[in-house]
């Protein structure tokens, strides 16, 4: 994983601590404490993410703890996360979601995250993420990501959604809410397109489909389609309505920023995948610079204190041996 900036993540320090010199210590990346903090960060990042897919932790690359003389404590973490096949609107817990395979063009996010520890409760105060597609295992015949506004891909989306509406017999008509991803690959002698997208329930029916708008508390679904000039197939899974007190009249509202595609299905040009929210809360934490989106090295001369060292050989008291640091990080790779 490439570092996100020229300054290491361990120098992300709170400006309010400038009156006292903080101490810096390590945790092993595979320790239970580090993994618990990383999962808090993972869930927080997914909660901020309103488009595309959920991300799952793949590796803890670094973790350091900053402690102030007053007892304040912050966890500074460098994390790698991978895109799963679960859309952010899918209620499936991310722990049960499948990480997308490399040959299907995996998408990874490198995130620097700062968490505060107050009374044993961890909470994210700021983060910055860079999301990129991995091309390591691209092969001849592998699906290739298309732009999210690719004309042929959107034609498949429209045609397959029409097929779904015509075949299901649902009382309500569904419309496109968001394209998740689109790919193409050669299946000789044809070009096969594949698309994943979110649909939302409207006030219309198949018989009455003029001026359709999404319902205030709609059902939503996730569709997977493939096809081309020779026709298409589609499979849509309607998400189970969440209930409160055994009733069905409380359904989550769409997250802020979710866009419902209408008419020409315009999306931001140039994108082939949805990205994690890249930057969060620079001002309230004092850790990240809002202008440069880079880390601010408040204390560049802080002594780095290792958590553990290898003991000297006790059987050879006359030997002069260096003290070796125990490798603490990066941690294990969870997926690939």
| Count of alpha and pi helical runs | 3
Described by its quaternary structure, the protein is single chain
Kindly provide the radius of gyration, computed on alpha-carbon positions and rounded to a whole number of angstroms.
24 Å
CATH T-level topology of the largest domain:
Nuclear Transport Factor 2, Chain: A
Model regions low in confidence, pLDDT < 50 over at least 5 residues: 1-19, 246-266, 282-324
Let me know the average pLDDT.
77
State the domain count.
2
Hey, roughly how much beta strand do the residues contain?
Answer: 25-35%
User: Which structural class do you get from the secondary structure elements?
Assistant: mainly beta
Overall form: elongated
Compute the number of strand runs: 12
Could you estimate the helical fraction of the residues in percent? Answer: 10-25%
> At CATH's second level, what is the architecture of the largest domain?
Roll
Q: H/E order of the elements?
A: EHEEEEEHEEEEEHE
Q: What is the distance, rounded to the nearest whole angstrom, between the alpha carbons of the first and last residues?
A: 12 Å
Question: Secondary-structure blueprint of this entry?
Answer:
Elements: E1 23-26, H1 32-48, E2 53-67, E3 73-87, E4 107-118, E5 121-133, E6 144-145, H2 151-168, E7 174-187, E8 190-201, E9 220-228, E10 231-238, E11 279-280, H3 282-285, E12 304-305
């Amino acid at each position: 994983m490439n570092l996100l900036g020229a300054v290491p993540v361990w120098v992300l320090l709170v400006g309010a601590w400038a009156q006292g010199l903080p101490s810096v210590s390590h945790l092993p990346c595979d320790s239970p404490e580090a993994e618990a903090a990383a999962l808090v960060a993972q869930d927080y990042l997914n909660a901020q993410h309103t488009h595309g897919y959920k991300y799952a932790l793949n590796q803890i690359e670094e973790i350091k703890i900053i402690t102030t003389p007053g007892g304040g404590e912050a966890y500074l973490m460098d994390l790698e996360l991978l895109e799963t096949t679960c859309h952010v609107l899918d209620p499936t817990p991310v722990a049960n979601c499948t990480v997308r395979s490399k040959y299907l063009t995996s998408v990874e996010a490198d995130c620097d995250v700062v968490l505060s520890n107050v009374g044993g409760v961890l909470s994210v105060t700021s983060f910055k993420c860079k999301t990129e597609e991995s091309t390591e295992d691209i092969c001849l015949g592998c699906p290739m990501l298309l732009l999210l506004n690719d004309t042929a891909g959107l034609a498949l989306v429209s045609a397959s959604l029409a097929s779904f509406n015509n075949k299901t017999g649902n009382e309500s008509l569904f419309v496109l809410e968001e394209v998740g991803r689109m790919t193409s690959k050669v299946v000789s002698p044809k070009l096969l397109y594949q698309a994943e997208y979110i649909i939302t329930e409207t006030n219309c029916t198949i018989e009455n489909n003029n001026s359709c708008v999404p319902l205030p508390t709609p059902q939503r679904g996730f569709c997977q389609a493939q096809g081309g000039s020779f026709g298409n197939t589609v499979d849509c899974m309607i998400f189970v309505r969440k209930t409160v007190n055994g009733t069905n009249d409380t359904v989550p509202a769409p997250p802020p920023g979710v866009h419902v595609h209408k008419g020409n299905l315009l999306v931001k040009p140039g994108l082939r995948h949805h990205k994690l929210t890249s930057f969060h809360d620079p001002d309230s934490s004092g850790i990240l610079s809002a202008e440069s989106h880079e880390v601010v090295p408040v204390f560049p001369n802080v002594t780095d204190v290792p958590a553990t060292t290898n003991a000297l050989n006790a059987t050879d008291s006359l030997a002069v041996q260096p003290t070796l640091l125990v490798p603490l990080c990066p941690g294990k790779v969870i997926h690939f």
